[in-house]
Amino acid sequence: MKVRLPFRPQQAIDTPYSIQVEGLTKRFGEFTAVNHISFEVKKGEIFGFLGANGAGKTTAIRMLCSLLQPTEGKAMIAGYDLATQPKLIKRHIGYMSQKFSLYDDLTIFENMQLFGTIYGIPRKELKDRIFSRLEDLHLADKSKTLVASIPLGWKQKLAFATAMLHRPDIVFLDEPTSGVDPIVRREFWNLIYEAASHGVTIFVTTHYMDEAEYCGRISIMSHGELKLIGTPTELKEQMQVDSIEKVFVKYVVR
Amino acid sequence: MPTISVQDLKKSYGHIQALKGVSFDVEEGEIFGVVGPDGAGKSTLFNILTTLLLPDSGTATVLGRDLFKEYLEIRKSIGYLPGTFSLYPDLTVEENLIFFATMYQSSIRENMSIIKPIWKQLMPFKKRPAGKLSGGMKQKLALCCALIHKPTLLFLDEPTTGVDPVSRKEFWEILGTIKTQGITVVVSTPYMDEATLCDRIALLQEGEFIRMDTPANIISSFKGELVTLRTDDIFKLLRKMADCTLNCTFYPYGENLHVIFYDPITTALPAFEEFLRQNDIIYNNLTQIAPTIEDCFIEVASSSGS
Amino acid sequence: MKELRQILKKEFTHIFRDRITLFLVLAIPIMLVLLFGFTISTDIHHATISVLDLSNDSQSKALVDKITASGYFEVVSYPKSEQEIDNDFKDKNIKLAIIIPSAFEEQLTNEKFVTIQIISDVSDMNVASILNNYVKAILNDFTNDFNGTATMPIELCTQMMYNPEANSVYMFVPGIITLIMIIVTALMSSITLAREVETGTMRMLLIAPVNKAWVVVGKVIPYMILSFISTITIIVISVLVFKMPIKGSVWLLLAVCIVFMLTSASFGTAISSLVKTQIDAMMITMMGLFLPTALLSGFLFPIDNMPYFFQVLANIFPGKWFIIAIKDVMLKGSGFFDIWLYMLILFAMAAILMTVSLIRLDKRR
Question: Does B238 touch chain A (CB under 8 A)?
């Protein structure tokens, strides 16, 4: 059986932005997790989304991926309206997180096939895409290996490849490199650069401040608010410090 | 006598060798860091040293007691903060602390002096279920619980993974105050920058210590010449570097590119500048710098690995 | 002891914070008893029956009148032969057939001894058993009217069809008690112990210098208390609402229940010492203990009718011994010396399993 998302010939609005957020807010009862955040991300940009634990990053990402209904505010994701076209948004975005990426008890190929099928990629086409991706990663001969038995670094690279299978316009990466060794982290960022160079928008969270420097622009969230946005250089000049780590510490502690 | 003394510890799960024979000593009162990526064997090592897991072979003494025969005695004097959150999420902050204090025949009042700096930060959340704390606060509570019986040796398994930089900084400040109380600390971390905060570190990769020394000595034993440079399109530069025939290792480092030359800098640097010119790379700030622990890890791992 | 008290306190905190589980644990037994009780004992009015009256005299007619007047029965057919009775069971769906022998009045007067035959449809054994009891009561009444004495001149000869080993309706109370105790003690303690392994808190307890027996005992006691409350609820409801007799000592009954709770809890801890996840603990307890107990303990199907292999297998599940013991106490009025062996078996099972789980728990792997 083929799983397909219902297709409606709706045109995405053509803008230079792939994410436009205005006054996005989420309240849980009395508690405001995300408080009127507004920003834009250009197509093909690598956008770093930083913040302390509990600052509201995860809530914000869940809203942008249309998993959570915002209390207030508007957002256009990949040219579709978050309020009225959540299904189309889901079709045009990819998502990967540190906490859940691939099923341990399935093989590499089975995992990729599963997620590819969910996004409605035709079987033949899917197989070609999977093997060409695996070849790029030099993993073609490992396609029948159980995910449980491969190192974390590979797993994260594969999860990224899987999230890219349906050629999304935007990928959301939630702490994709947590706990991965310095060499593999850099290999992972190579993949990110490559995807961005093909016009894919990257929306990434990380606790590694050196990775924040790899981003085109970064934003730092604190207590549900997002007031600091800019290129790493701009932010460092603005806060008069020499590293993003210091920007972060200075901004979040206040 | 060292606080921990380990000889040739080995442990396998099925055909996977988690520890391939590690030996080391930890001296009393030091912060000993085990630095390495996920899956390198850190948790296995910690589970063995905290008497939860039996190694396949090797010998070890912890606090002067034999790991195999006197493990019940060892348990009384060690504190352990596991790599995954291991408190009761439905009990409040206070209830968790009281519970673990009682399990060690201790009480909050008795050892308040040790946990005071951390407890002060937790006080506002005293009545909150532990599962609803933020990542940094969870770790602080776990540290409180690990310290509540006044251990002389503390094991911290990746206490700062997934924790934001501010909370990490606070956490390490707390470790500093713990050290002043004479408690020996063994801590693992995947963050290389935290390694410099340890007295001695061991770089662990694929079940083996690839280097063990003080951070300063590890940095001074760096083989090669490190230079840094800055460019607007780092990805373009990385692709071009793939064709570079110089004997070097290169990787992005924050907004810079780091290059390790294995040839003398006097010949390597001019050759590299020539290469950049040929490929029309606009760059600035090309300078030689002292390596960080992260540079050392990459240097050691890339020469021992492939 | 301070540690044990703290573990107990923690365990009760878990229980009271998890309102849904607490509600289910306390409410399900009540629902089950009421469900079983009412669906079994009510709604048997106007049961359809056939009467084959071979004597057709005034006394036999009086008996039939009395049976219909009771309101329990409705005579839908008066067959002429036993062959027709068989057809009535199939075509008219009668629940019961009564055969009154020829010369009923004469035998009743002269010989003071008559045999009446009842044929029941025991495909629903509980209905059949209740209807039989009704007939017995009516016949008893009828004889009293006839000669004013309490002796029973009419002997009832019951032939049960489709299920010759019909069990008493009172079987369901011991059965429910057994199953509830397995759910609350075995299932809950195995799941919550596995939860400690899953969340890593077991690791924290293991490296603490606390006696491991207390960890297990502290885990098990709260669920034994909950289970004891459920058991008492079930017994009270069965006695008050369904007139379940307790012929033996109530204290002995409760003592048997406590021993079974221990056994059940030991099964739970033993299972949890084998698994690493809550799901595994739940599946093994349900498939390995709950279902076999329901099927093999004699609660739903009589053990004597099982293939030999299953009769032997039934012995290793504690439910069988427990059900025998409480049935004997409640229905037969047996005393301690009648059932001590069953209690010993249950206790021995508990002791072995508890030892095994403690050893496994404390072992470094």
Answer: yes
The burial class, CB within 10 Å (0-12 / 13-18 / 19+), for C151 is: exposed
For B195-230, what is each residue's pLDDT tens digit?
889 999 998 888 889 889 999 999 998 888 999 998
Residue A66 sits at φ, ψ, to 5 deg, of 55, 35
Nearest to C179 by CA among C269, C290, C27, C281: C290
Q: Structurally, what CATH architecture does the domain formed by B223-290 represent?
A: 2-Layer Sandwich (3.30)
Q: What is the ipTM of this complex?
A: 0.78
| B37–chain A Cβ distance below 8 A for any pair | yes
Give the three-class secondary structure for A48: strand
Superfamily holding C43-161: abc type-2 transporter like domain (3.40.1710.10)
Residues sharing a CB contact under 8 Å with residue C23, sequence separation 6 or more, in sequence order: none
CA distance A213 to C350: 62
Q: What is the 3-state secondary structure (H, E, C) of A129-151?
A: HHHHHHHHCCCHHHCCCEHHHCC
In angstroms, the separation between the Cα of residue B47 and the nearest Cα of chain C is 9
Q: Report which DSSP code applies to A107.
A: B
DSSP C274-298: T-SSHHHHHHHHIIIIIHHHHHHSS
> Quick one: tokens of C325?
């013991």
> What are the C-alpha distances in Å from A74 to residues A81, A169, B211?
8, 19, 53
Parallel, antiparallel or unpaired: strands B31-35 and B200-205 = parallel
pLDDT digits (tens, 9 = 90+) for B79-127: 999 988 899 999 999 999 999 999 988 888 888 888 888 888 899 999 9
| DSSP state letter for C150 | S
Look up the CATH architecture of domain B4-218.
3-Layer(aba) Sandwich (3.40)
Q: Does B291 touch chain A (CB under 8 A)?
A: no
CA distance B235 to chain A (A): 6
Whose CA is closest to C197, among C256, C275, C262, C249?
A: C275
B90 with C13: Cβ contact below 8 A:
yes
Amino acid identity at C237: I
> How many residues are there in chain A?
254
Question: Which residue segments constitute the domains of chain A, with CATH numbers given?
Answer: 17-253 (3.40.50.300)
Of A49, A184, A59, A156, nearest to A100 by C-alpha is A156
Any idea where the domains of chain C sit in the sequence? 2-39+169-362, 43-161
Hey, where are the domains in chain B?
A: 4-218, 223-290
C100 in helix, strand or coil?
A: strand
Please name the residue ranges forming H helices in chain C: 2-17, 19-41, 58-69, 82-91, 104-110, 125-147, 172-181, 188-199, 201-207, 212-242, 250-272, 278-285, 291-296, 308-314, 318-327, 336-362
pTM of the predicted protein model: 0.78
